[in-house]
Amino acid sequence: MVTGASGFVGARVAARLGAPATLSMRRGDWREATEAFDFRGATVIHLAARVHDPRARDADYERDNVGKTSVLAHAAAASGAARFVFASTVKVFGEESAAGAFTEQDEPRPEDAYARSKWRAEDTLDQVSAQTGLPVVVLRIPLTYGPGVGGNFRALARLADSGWWLPFGALANRRSLVHVDDLADAIVLAAAHEGAPGRTFNVAHPEPVSTARLVEAMRAALGRPRRLFALPPALLEAFAAMAGRGAQARRLTRSLEVDSSAFTRATGWQARVRLEDGLAASLPRRRA
Length: 288
Fold this sequence. Notes:
Layout: E1 2-3, H1 10-17, E2 22-23, H2 30-36, E3 43-46, H3 58-78, E4 83-89, H4 113-132, E5 136-141, E6 143-145, H5 151-160, E7 177-179, H6 180-192, E8 199-202, H7 211-222, H8 233-242, H9 246-253, H10 261-267, H11 275-282
Parallel strand pairs: 1-2, 1-3, 3-4, 4-5, 5-8, 6-7
Helix pairs in contact: 1-6, 3-4, 7-11, 8-9
């Protein structure tokens, strides 16, 4: 059973599973539908969530990402679900990996409302699992891209498609990404593999990407010239802060890297999509 099956990631997961049962967490009667669902022997893949929403309050994230996860997990456990797979985020570690890639053993330090709600949802699932024996798998996911991607990735792609000279040439940061097809494979594997239950995993391509390389690859995919010049990261952040965009700039200048080798060791999963290939299939090339 899949929640969020119509979303960017959920649609790929549902396609791999054939015709899974689905449950909408957006409907007004979501609670009644959840409590009436027959979970006997089911593997629940919970992808539905409120993500970065500038209009949302902390209470909105708490309701949608913590409260709904709790209701779903308790209902699944009560009627005999076989496994619960939860899509979390690498942002539970914070906004920056200053001392190398985060591993699953690092202490979470979420900084925004979205990340805090995902961390509280993880904690809720730990409690449900301890109380009921429901096998839970948590996947912490980085920025995900692919055909149809939106959010911050789409905004950066629009900037790359502008043709302007951009001040990212000196950025040698390290940010983890994952292609949506690789992620969908990982989620389906986590739902079935005997080595996954009871564990939390990072899921990302093993090769992190700098902002300079990412924008350069975007421009190549879009048929644009490279047009990057080198501005020191500290200066770029200072200019952005004066414009009221300091947080956005730090997401471009700082590192957020995770180590996903534990998931590979446990399940054999391998990310297969190269950045350049994934972007070529995701971004519409400019007409001559």
